[in-house]
TrEMBL record:
Domain of life of the source: Eukaryota
Pfam family for this entry, one: NCA2
Localization: Mitochondrion membrane
Transmembrane spans: 614-635
Biased composition, class Low complexity, residue ranges: 64-85, 259-269
Ranges for region Disordered: 24-48, 61-94, 241-274
Membrane association type: Multi-pass membrane protein
Name assigned to this protein: Nuclear control of ATPase protein
InterPro entries cross-referenced by the UniProt entry: NCA2-like (IPR013946)
GO CC list: mitochondrial outer membrane
Upper classification of the organism: Eukaryota, Fungi, Dikarya, Basidiomycota, Pucciniomycotina
Key words, A-Z: Membrane, Mitochondrion, Transmembrane, Transmembrane helix
Primary location class: mitochondrion
Length: 757
């Protein structure tokens, strides 16, 4: 994931690479007339070796330029081509130690006379290489400051969660109990040691007596114990009444009586009563303070103190980040170029502007047209001013910057490189150590501090659970067998068997499948009906073979008209027809006809069921598959809970929504006048703006952002870069438009889901 520091340093490195070839001019070709005036062969070899060394440093600094720097020609043109290699990787990703190693490798310390450049051409190459190293240092410092500010923000998020809920506050109080108990024991032992050794004194000249209760009350007041358990109460910095002021009367002796030569008995008694009233008021105030402040409220007040200090430290880091970026974003150099094209005084004005960032704000088109020429002295002065600026940003406010005492740059590139090396090896690590000490005091409790209640409860809970399991071992064993049998029956009877039936259906069915009727039942019933009708017609009417065939054909299609006519005649004289036998035969024929009709209906139903057999099979297996899907989703959620659960997605969207709100506040409160860009508040606002946008940049690497869509990602980062570059200098209308773009992204990515109830 790209960052603002990486994009910014890549832009500066590309600008320097574009104008670097104009600084390096090819050496004149050798001829027989000037061979004697040229350097010796060994000197030329040394020049070539130094060029190769600078080329190797640039290749390590920017890996993408290594291919262009491996040309075999040793001419000056090859050196300029190596200096102008195309950028694809920003040097801001380098570690400070790696960058310091590159500086020391390019310009080793304690060289003496060897630090003098071998030729003007080598001095040019060294200055341009040193400018590239300074740009990389600029990006590294900016990245370090932003990482430190993000670390403080993570601390603040933890303390905000502790402060927001009473349960978290109580849990933090329990977790920090051992630390508070150790502090209480240490303070108590120190005070007792001072009391026993006689080093504890009050305003009285004589040491206090150990036999008096007043001595112990003065040595161990309640406020001492409370401030040792809750150190934020010391000095009243928490906004509460200072316990030191309330308990100061305990350490002071009783007021002495006024001198009788200057006071009267009435005035002396008034003074004593006033003193007693004052002391009583302090005791009453202290007692009320102890009664009204519960441990939870004191703990919450302690957390609020931590958050206040974290915000102050983060504001200081934001101010430093703003100072770095605001000076780099100033466009006054470009304005001077536009106003003074063709004037000789432009170069002199350019030298007054500090820093490489302002120097390289010259447009490439202007440099191509030759309207403004930048020399090596400009690069030297800008490099030195950039180092002074970095040194002033990294140096604490209580100390004076080391480099600002020397306004003019060193004479040689080696001396300039030694200042850069000191910045990387001494100033930056000192700043990191100071921040580490501050961050350690404001950081959340460590792992063991947070985990000891759980680790301590494990043996107790384990013994209770083990005892309960042993006492109910038979019941639990039966439950386990029942659960195993249930799972096995579900898998075999409701999952595997229905799936097997579906596969059999797809293969065309099996011979032993259940049917509504036999395969030959309908045909045999129909043939029997046909024989009964033909025999009846032959006996009753004496039909020939052709006529019986026609009658059989009618029976096969369900036409029993002739038989029904006979039935209608027979029922007119049922007794006679019964004695003759025709009525019974026609009745049996109709019974057989009903049997055939039932068989036909059953056959139709069976065909319909077979046509829907696959549908029924899928309907039968669907509930079991749904149960398996739910169980699988639950198990996958347990395994991948750390990668994107719903709660984490909502938290991430909530943070992004709060960032958009903060951007709106920052840019709405920012003055549109450019004169305010040098003020402390403007630098702090710019720093907070970049820190807020860095959170949106980091959002692109979370699961809640559709990172698979590269076009969407590129558009999102383009809007973020526009806000980073123009947010601090834009007028009110443009700022509203830039914030409106971010709001559109918030609606499109549904960041408001994180704040919905």
């Amino acid at each position: 994931m790209s960052s603002y520091a990486a994009d910014f340093t890549a832009h500066l490195a590309g600008a320097l690479s574009h104008i670097a070839p104009s600084f390096v001019h090819p050496s004149p070709s050798s001829s027989s007339t000037n061979l004697a005036a040229q350097a010796t062969q060994s000197h030329e070899d040394a020049v070539d070796a130094r060029e190769q060394e600078m080329r190797a440093i640039l290749a390590k600094l920017r890996p993408s330029s290594s291919s262009s720097s491996q040309s075999g020609a040793a001419s000056t043109a090859s050196a300029s081509s190596s200096l102008s290699g195309r950028k694809s990787h920003s040097p801001a990703h380098l570690k400070p130690s790696h960058l310091a190693h590159l500086v020391d490798a390019a310009f080793p310390p304690f060289q003496g006379q060897a630090s003098t450049p071998l030729s003007p051409q080598i001095e040019t190459v060294e200055l341009v290489t040193l400018a590239q190293l300074t740009i990389a240092t600029y990006g590294v410092v900016l990245r370090v400051l932003m990482d430190e500010a993000n670390e403080l923000e993570r601390h603040d998020e933890y303390w905000a969660a502790v402060e927001s809920e009473a349960w978290n506050t109580a849990l933090y109080l329990v977790q920090s109990t051992p630390v508070r108990a150790f502090s209480l024991a240490n303070v108590t032992l120190t005070r007792l040691r001072q009391l026993m050794s006689g080093t504890l004194r009050t305003t009285e000249s004589s040491p206090p007596s150990l036999l008096h209760l007043t001595t112990w009350r003065r040595a161990l007041p309640p406020s001492l114990f409370l401030t040792s358990v809750f150190p934020h109460l010391t000095g009243g910095s928490s906004g509460l009444p200072s316990l030191e002021d309330l308990s100061r009367a305990e350490l002071d002796p009783e007021p002495t009586s006024p001198s009788p030569s200057f006071t009267t008995p009435q005035s002396s008694s008034n003074a004593l009563s006033f003193s007693r009233a004052t002391k009583l008021g302090r005791k009453t105030a202290r007692s009320l303070l102890f009664l009204t402040l519960s441990p939870l409220s004191l703990t919450r007040d302690e957390v609020a103190t931590y958050r206040t200090k974290i915000r102050d430290e983060r504001d200081e880091l934001a101010r430093r980040i703003g100072e770095l970026t605001l000076r780099a974003q100033e466009s006054e150099v470009g304005e001077l170029l536009e106003e003074g094209r063709g004037k000789r005084g432009v170069k002199r004005e350019l030298r007054k502007k500090p820093g490489l960032a302002q120097l390289f704000s010259v447009s490439r088109q202007g440099a191509k047209e030759g309207q403004v020429e930048l020399g090596l002295e400009d690069v030297r002065q800008a490099t030195w001013q950039t180092l002074i600026h970095l040194d002033s940003v990294l140096t604490p406010s209580s100390a004076a910057p080391r480099m600002s005492s020397t306004p003019s740059p060193p004479a040689t590139p080696a001396d300039l490189a030694h200042s850069l090396s000191y910045l990387l090896n001494q100033t930056l690590p000192a700043h990191s150590r100071a921040f580490g000490q501050t961050s350690l005091l404001l950081s959340p409790p460590g792992f063991w501090t947070r985990s000891w209640p759980y680790l301590l409860s494990i043996p107790l809970l384990s013994s209770l659970v083990a005892r309960a399991v042993y006492n109910h071992r038979l019941t639990l064993h039966q439950y386990a067998l029942d659960a195993a049998s249930t799972i096995k029956g579900f898998l075999f009877d409701w999952v595997l068997e229905p799936v097997r039936k579906i596969l059999d259906t797809l293969r065309g069915g099996s011979a032993d499948e259940v049917a509504l009727m036999g395969r030959e039942s309908l045909r045999s019933d129909l043939e029997s009906l046909e024989r009964m009708v033909v025999d009846f017609a032959r006996d009753e009417w004496g039909l020939s073979g052709r006529e019986t065939d026609e009658l059989a054909r009618k029976v096969r299609v369900g036409d029993l008209t002739e038989v029904l006519k006979v039935w209608e005649e027979d029922i007119k004289s049922p007794i006679k027809s019964t004695l003759r036998g025709s009525l019974i035969r026609t009745l049996l024929i109709q019974v057989q006809k009903v049997k055939v009709d039932v068989a036909l209906a059953t056959s139709g139903i069976e065909k319909m069921l077979k046509s829907q057999q696959l549908t029924f099979a899928f309907v039968g297996v669907a509930p079991s598959m749904l149960v398996l899907a739910l169980v699988g989703r639950w198990l996958r959620g347990l395994v991948r809970r750390d990668r994107g659960s719903g709660k984490k997605r909502r938290e991430e969207k909530k943070r992004c929504w709060l960032v958009v709100r903060q951007l709106d506040i920052l840019l709405s409160s920012r003055s549109s006048s450019s004169s305010a860009s040098d003020s402390t508040s403007a630098a702090q606002t710019q720093g907070h703006l970049l820190l807020s946008l860095s959170r949106l940049r980091s959002h692109t690497s979370t699961p809640s952002f559709p990172s698979h869509d590269t076009q969407l990602l590129a558009s999102f980062l383009a809007d973020i870069r526009a806000l980073e570059e123009r947010g601090a200098r834009a007028v009110e209308g443009e700022r509203r438009e830039l914030v409106g773009r971010v709001r559109e992204w918030a609606r499109a990515l549904r960041w408001d889901e994180g704040i919905r109830v």
